Structure formats: structure tokens, C-alpha cells
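Continuing the batch. This is chain 6 of the set; chains 1 through 5 are on the previous pages. Same settings as before, nothing changed between runs. Recording input and output for traceability.
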Amino acid sequence: MFLGIDCGTQGTKALLVDKEGRSLGRGYFKHPLIERESGAREQEPQWWIDALKHSVLQALDGSQDVPVVAIGVSGQQHGLVVLDEEFRVIRPAKLWNDTETAEENSALVEMLGGAAACIERFGIVPLTGYTVSKLLWIQRREPANFERIRHILLPHEYLNFWLTGNMFAEYGDASGTGYFDVRRREWATEVLEKIDGGSHKLEKCLPAFKLPQESVGKLRREVAEELNLPANCVVAVGGGDNMMAAIGTGNVEQGRVTMSLGTSSTVYSFSSQPVIDNSGVIAPFCSSSGGWLPLVCTMNATNVVTQTLNLLGKEVSDIEAALRFTEPGAAGMVVLPFLNGERTPDLPRARGVVAGISSTNFNSFNFIRAVIEGVSFGLLRGLERILQGRTATVISLTGGGARSPQWRQLLADASGAVIEVPEEEEAGCLGAAIQAMYCDSHARGDHANFSTLTHRCVKFQTDSTTNPRPELRDAYGSALAKYVELLRREYPQSMQE
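Output for chain 6:
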């Protein structure tokens, strides 16, 4: 059996599967979140460990008689975990959605010669959510903590360290740090020298890399005992949550598109070559399966929809009626759903906007539709950039939003693509488990490839497949144009991308 663990923003999940990808057990444990008006979003890494223990034991309940061969860990990208020389956590981890470092990010990009210079030298432009601006923030705001830093880890790397006692990185998660060269697949230490003054202090804090087929080691004895796992159980290198979800949706070969509708939303498509976007809108990440994973992320998705429903006194089930009984474009109401600032477009200090309200369209159903369209249009604009003129034919949809038949229909109609929903909702967990299979296969000399494993393990819900209605494409095109018009008017700087 294989165990996939996914440490997200809201909680940690565990999924136990067999070699066919069939679920044998699952667990979940929620995380607290530190939030401040300054834009800070932080968590104590110990909370992740506690949640991992609870979720793994829950997933293994009743299955201890069948040994777990390998574990894969998926983790929220961009988070910063800093340890001292005694391997103690120095301060709470700053997360992907922490916008408190916006000033530091702007300063860093300027130090590096501007966005164009960053793309030319490293293939990527640091954004506020990336890891690197968090390091500059600590250097400027918490100098005593900065001096204590001896190890720099991402969330999934920290959990691997707790499991095995070993520190290693992998290319997919590393490519979201802002101090990694996505074309050469190596640390971009020149970026870190802008923070430590050329002392090479931060470079010495970085872990070495492992390839996708390599493990980071076996479980520590005390961890194996506490989790009721075999002492010889290996831990695969794992990766970032988007990279693991790509594997968990079969997005390991050219032509696949994955869209996630969660707290944040992402859309990405596997590429065998680096995809460098001179505007900096596309994150030209590496995949964790040997290729690249050009990705667009928006910071406002199901969280905004949930807040809207709560404000209106509605339930999640009311989404269906709201979308069914309203027309594309919400009768002229348009919403920019930037409640948490925004990452794509890069507007960390932005606020949400509601426009086009009239006496005839101002009702709860139109408001719900306008919010969902605002979330969806942001992602679809990103997908257009990723595909560079090509048309998506099939989109694998994951996350909480994928459960809504009417939201699936909206995305199909607006994109012209067939929407598929994986049977396993926890794509990050499944991807991590498949990554563990891949590691185990190579250790045994079988050398299975990711394509073979995903074709075997990733299955789709036949009754959730949603086909586009061509007759509505123009109506959604007009609604999207109004969204872009409002974006241009309120945030003209976003049109420079």
C-alpha cells in the first residue's frame, strides 16, 4: 500500500491506496490560521505535524495488517520554514497567501533590475506570495530571527524532515520560491545575495536536490512507532500541492489541463519544455514529474463564494439555482472578487469591486452568479495565456467548486472545453501516493513511468462529465469582455502584463 499526505492551508489530509489507486482509508485534521490586518497569514509548523499524525492514524485505522511500502508528501507551496542550528523552528511559517511582504517583493524585483531582468536571468518574476520576499521581510523586520537562520525549508520539505531526519528539495516545489532558475533547474543564489549582502549565508541554508524517482530516506524509528508504520517504509521526495495534484489528475503529458477551485484557484498544463512568459503572468514552474508546469494562480475562489453565500444567508446548495435561473453576464452585474488582494493579476493590495448594479438586476441570484463568474473569468484568462493560442479540449476540474454541476457547466460553456472530474477528490493526496509508487518502482528496478501509473490510478466520474453548449459561447464572451473592461478601469496597471 501507499500513503499520500497533503498539507494544505486549511488542514492536512491522508489517503491510503493500493497499487491500482483504489482508496483504502482516509483522514483529515484541521489547521488553525494566524491572520492579521497587515496581510499576514501564518501557521506554526508544529500544527502540520500534529495534523499529519491525526490524519495518518485515521487513514490507517483497520489497515495495519497490510504494510505501507512508501509515503509521498504534498505541501502548500511558497511557505517559509526557518530553522536554527539546533533544527528548532524560529518563527511561525509565512504562507503562500501572506501579502504582508508586498513592499519587500517590490524592492527585491527592483534590486534585481526589474521584472524583465528577472525573466531573462532566472525565467521567473518573484511575486508577493513566493518564498523569497518572506526572507527579505525577516531580514528587514526581524533581524534577530534572520541571524538565527541555518536551514530554509518549504512546508513539504519540513514534513519530510520530520518524517526522516533528512533535508532535501525537489525541482517542482523549489521553482515557486523565487530563488530558483526554472530553466537550469538549480538554486538562483544571486537572488539570495541581494538579501544577505553577498555573504552566502542563505545559500548555505538550502537543501540539496533529489530527483522524482529518489527517496529522502526511511522513517525515523520513533515516527514509525508513533504512526504504526513499518520501519522500512520509505518517504518519496514529494512536492508542492499543485505539482502533486497534476500527477493526481493525470497531468503528466502534453495536452492535459488541470483546474483547481479551492481556497485559491489554479490552472496549469504539463509541458515538456520550459514555458517562459515575458509578462510574468504565468508561473513557469517545473513539474515534479520531470517536465514543466506553467501555472496561473488566483488568490480568491471558493473562499469568496462562501463569504458571499454567508452574507446573503444562503447555503452552498443555492449555487445550483442561482446559476440555473440567471443568464451569462448576471444581467450586467460584474464582480472583481479580490477580497484578499490578488496574485494574477499581480495586485497584492487590491480590493473587491461590484459594478453594474441596477434596480432590475440587484438580487441574490445575480450577485452569486457575478461572484462565480468573476472567479471563473480570472482563471480562464490565465488559461488563455498558458495555451498561447491553442484551445483547451478537456479540463480536469478539482477542488470544492468541482462538486457544483452548474459551476462545471458555466466553465464548460465559457471555455468550450469538456469538463472532467476525477473520482478521487483529493488530487494532491493521490498524486503524492502515485509519486511514492514511482519511487518504489524505481527502487525495485521496475522503472515504471508516470504516464503508466496515472493511466492506471487516475479515474474520472462518468456522470460528472460536462459538455459545452456552443450556443452560449458568445454570451460568455460578452460577459468576459465586461469583466476585463472593469478590471482595466479599476486597475489599469494590470493591463500592462
